[in-house]
Amino acid sequence: MLAPERHELILRSLRRHGRLRVAELAAELGVSAITVRRDLAELDSAGLLRRVHGGAVGTSPAAASPRQGSQLTVGIVVPSSTFYYTDVIRGAEAMADRYGARLVLGVSGYDVAVEQERLEKVLGIGVAGLLLSTALGDDHAAELGRTLDAIDVPVVLMERAFGFPHVQREYDHVRTDHAYGAMLALRHLASLGHRRIGINLNASVTAYWLRKGIAEAADTLGVELFVSPVALPARGEDPTTLAQLDAFLGECQSHGARAVLVHSDEHAARLIERAMEHGLRIPEDLAVIAYNDETAAMAVVPLTAVCPPKLTLGETACELLLRKLKSTPTHAPATQHLSLLPELRVRASCGAAPIDANPRSAVPRID
């Protein structure tokens, strides 16, 4: 069956029922769901219907509320609306304003079940497209493949990068090159003369990419690295945090490390306080770099920090989605996989103090 024939049957069915579902249309027309989605996209572009999650509705005023007249509405679902994602949301919102579009926000709280509920609610109002940062990281792609492939509107992933064979389609994504961020921090420490460096990461999605950068840095920079075997809690108020920081300082002493990379700012700030209580000077006895740069400048000793481009990430992802939504099917932009580079912001916690020839003897013992 040729496309014009399918289009006529689709519009006839829409006039009868008022709403269409992709799965039912695929069965009725004897074609794949992908073909139906393509047909709906072409008919939507021609103004003959409006695509919504799972299918399409007519273009009558009663069905047009999610667009608020001519205003395009897109969804954004993120794990949190605070800390890291505050700037991501702000960036997306600023870009949506430039395009005259409206954002609808869903927050999962890093809970997969809640995320599914938020996705259903956001998609259920008929958004034209979706910005998504899932609760799970890149190493859990297989668990998310079916959910992603069932979404019937354009999706741009933020800080996640899922591909074949875990998902059937290729998705646009915009992510921070956190592996480069780790390399940036360790390169700076090596430039100051540090050859033994401790690493402490919290239990987060970002740690997956930081470990990749750390492994590469060890070979490239010719430094001796050790990664603490215990992941710090995602939030610093966990009662075990203090004991873990003390243990990490002990590990630094054992390895003769006078420089550390700590993820995230909150943990790095507490590590500095704890180190000073033990008589260590910052940065003379212990140079510290934090990862994230949300509150790093407000630490007792302002923290040198790797700063991901959070605002730019939100702007870029939203623009990528809106350009796709405003294009015609025949002139749709190519799928893009974009990596943004973080920057290093140097502050007092990581100065260029001379390094002892025998660093193991210079590190105060943590008892």
UniProtKB/TrEMBL annotation:
Keywords: DNA-binding, Transcription, Transcription regulation. The keyword Transcription applies. Signal peptide: none annotated. Residues 3-58 form the HTH deoR-type domain. The keyword Cell membrane does not apply. InterPro entries: DeoR_HTH, LacI/GalR-like_sensor, Peripla_BP_I, Tscrpt_reg_HTH_DeoR_CS, WH-like_DNA-bd_sf, WH_DNA-bd_sf. Pfam families: HTH_DeoR, Peripla_BP_3. This is Substrate-binding domain-containing protein.
